[in-house]
Write a sequence for this structure.
């Protein structure tokens, strides 16, 4: 039986909710006390998030409908290794915790001197690049689902085009860019250090996911030998 989200109306409603959810959460986490509704930099970030999320959902609806249905499923699914479920929940908590820390540091803690205008501009560029990388990865890879699992019923195969020709996990690379760019743009140097916690959890998930793919996905071992970088070319 086809999932409920496969109906055009149901899919459109879920996609609209998905496009609104992340920028709405971002606004609450940044602007709720100790933040302020007059925080211009935060509103710019929310606007970028809304435009990027909406564009991604629209592009998936037009070119990767099956992937959109998969990405709208819950992050914890049947057939997903238990360790991955723990990492997904841990990463979500660390991700939103890192975002929530930023307004506390900017308005109350002041743990480190704030980044200068050039570093802040770099932060916004990283946020934009991170969203672009995530969108490019989803466009290239129809199997980029949120849960680590075998997708035999969907004919899963190794994808080595687009950003996957450069790094093996471009979506995670995009998430890391978002995590670093957000506190830089908002003026929290300490927030960049806090962002290392969810990035470390991403690295752990990469190790788990690659063990799974080497075992379950034919051709992944050869792909990993061709594309050496997991997250950042020349670094790791």
């Amino acid at each position: 039986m086809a999932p409920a989200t496969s109906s055009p109306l149901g899919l459109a409603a879920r996609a609209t909710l998905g496009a609104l959810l992340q920028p709405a959460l971002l606004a609450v986490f940044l602007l709720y006390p100790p933040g302020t509704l007059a925080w211009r930099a935060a509103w710019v970030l929310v606007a970028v998030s809304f435009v990027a999320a909406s564009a991604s959902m629209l592009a998936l609806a037009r070119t990767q409908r099956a992937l959109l249905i998969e990405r709208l499923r819950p992050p914890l699914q049947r057939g997903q290794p238990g360790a991955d479920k723990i990492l997904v929940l841990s990463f979500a908590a660390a991700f939103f915790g890192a975002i929530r820390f930023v307004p506390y540091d900017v308005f109350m803690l002041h743990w480190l001197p704030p980044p200068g205008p050039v570093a802040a501009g770099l932060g916004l560029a990283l946020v934009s690049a991170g969203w672009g990388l995530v969108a490019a990865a989803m466009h290239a890879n129809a199997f980029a689902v949120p849960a680590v699992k075998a997708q035999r019923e969907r004919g899963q195969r190794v994808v080595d085009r687009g950003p996957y020709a450069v790094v093996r996990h471009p979506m995670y690379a995009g998430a890391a860019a978002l995590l670093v760019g957000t506190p830089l743009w908002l003026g929290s140097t300490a927030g960049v250090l806090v962002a290392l916690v969810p990035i470390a959890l991403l690295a752990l998930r990469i190790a788990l996911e690659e063990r799974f793919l080497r075992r379950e996905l034919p051709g992944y071992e050869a792909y990993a030998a061709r594309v050496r970088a997991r997250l950042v070319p020349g670094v790791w």
About this structure: DSSP finds nine helices and no strands in the chain.
